[in-house]
Amino acid sequence: MDKARKQELSDIAVKIRMGALECVYGGNSGHPGGSLSIAEILSYLYFEKMNIDPKNPKKADRDRFVLSKGHTCPALYATLANRGYFSTDLLKTFRHSDSILQGHPDMKGIPGVDMSTGSLGLGFSASCGMAKAAKLSGDSYKVYAILGDGELEEGQVWEAAMFAGHYKLNNLCIFIDFNGLQIDGDITKVMNPTPIDDKFRAFNWNVIVIDGHDFDQIEAAVAASEQSDKPTAVVCHCIKGKGVSFMENEASWHGNAPTKEQYEAAIAELKSQLGGNK
Amino acid sequence: MKLSKKYELGKKIATREAYGDALAEFGADPRIIVLDADLSKSTKTANFKKVYPERFVNCGIAEGNMMAVAAGMATTGKIPFASSFAMFAAGRAFEQVRNAIGYPHLNVKIGATHAGITVGEDGATHQCNEDIGVMRTIPGMVILNPADAAEARACVKAAIDYYGPVYMRYGRLSVPVIFDEDTFDFEIGKGQTIVNGTDVTIAATGIMTASAIEAAKALSAEGISARVVNICTIKPIDKELLIKCAAETGAVVTAEEHNIIGGLGSAVCETVCEAKPVPVIRVGIKDVFGKSGKATELIDEFGLSAKDLVAAAKAAIALKLK
After folding, report:
1. At a CB cut-off of 8 Å and minimum separation 6, what does A100 contact?
2. Using one digit for the tens of pLDDT, what is the confidence trace for B104-146?
3. Which chain B residues are closer than 8 Å to A121 by Cβ?
4. What's the whole-model pTM score?
5. Is the Cβ pair A129, B73 closer than 8 Å?
6. CA nearest to A122 within chain B
7. ipTM of this predicted complex?
8. Which CATH superfamily is domain A3-273 in?
9. Residue B63 annotated among the catalytic residues of the structure
């Protein structure tokens, strides 16, 4: 990826972060920490990689995306809005009773959402169903999903991992946001799901461990997924709350809305990161 | 709906057998995918697998994953039939059915076999007497509980032709064929009057419909005119028919192989109370867990026989006369 393109994607990731915070601030509730950690992955998928058309959100041969950790939908909504699925003006209506932007992704009401998620583990299984369906009918679209590291504590995740490994769903590529924190704190203290990479390897997956904020590494992982005869799990080392200094690595920002002062400080800090001033 | 004639009247066939037959019979549509969780010989989805092995997906013993996998498939335009025992389809995987299938209103069909107490010897852990109740509370979920093999097969065809989530309840026990497939007309949401009568209505569902017919004959011998209506679609329930029956006969008995809480009895009470209040007596499992035993013994022990329906019909009529 050339330097200029990387800079563009990086700026988009910053805008996704700003939009995600606009959601959580506007809704006065939501999940900022895990939304900020997945901005580069979403930026790469929606602005560089996926075969999609915001004017035709349901086109049959589109690549699919499932946000299995549905609580971080502020980042997804900001991505979809910036990509042209709906107006960025809607972001501030997040979680309002008259808004389409539900507290967790709703495929019936939100253009560009491929699966309703929010109950952890469920989206991962659904992404396996999409990938298996494509195999059954010989369709060539790809399925991408983002899971949380805490989400791996759900038993259903391993039922799905077994399914995808068994059926060699190499059209499925999942990103695991390995930021190390869940609501109640350090994932290794709440219910340790590590080692993540070895577990997926044991379920017959192609596993790649990367820095989830590095576009070159994200791109290389996706390219490698296309060469594999197995499903690919990209274990992404990420920083929860990435980009906002007072939110970074703080479990308390998992599900808290910022005050006006905190919101303005966060937006100012993010704005300063636009244009390569990271 | 035209079905190829197959099931002989009076012959005993389990509704799950008809489920498997129907999947094989109507499975030519390439959108249909049949999923199972390691029970294909029992759920009879193996019948489909024989004909269309390329569209049979075994999910292993992982029902929650199977339901959400089916949901993912449905988002791509497939018509998945996810099959397991009712205990696991409606019970273990309730949350996945609710959130992944019901909430997005996806076109998934759930084939739940071995429902009710007549699963028999496997005992209480496998006797799902709650499934209608839990499925009924999911908005938009269609619930079909066929009375015999003919109706069971019609349910599959109707589910294919209908867009949206459908829960189909099938049994393990062989039960007599009561519908003549030459004249049988099945429609989701419509009940049928099988026996005409004026003193009391017995609204029956699933394998209890045959017992209700038997009960009506016994009542007739005692000079009591009982009407029998078959309610295969528990949701959306045939309000028009039930209200008409309540108005015309003035008393209702419900008959189901399910807990008296949450199933047909509850649905009929809700319907009748809001429009034409009349006495309703519910025959079903009396809010207790089952136990191991022969299905036929359990039917008697848990109060689900034709004799129990006769007693309930008399009790309902007595309440009417007060």
Report:
1. A86, A90, A106, A109, A110
2. 999 999 999 999 999 999 999 999 999 999 999 999 999 999 9
3. 64, 68
4. 0.96
5. yes
6. B68
7. 0.96
8. Thiamin diphosphate (ThDP)-binding fold, Pyr/PP domains (3.40.50.970)
9. yes
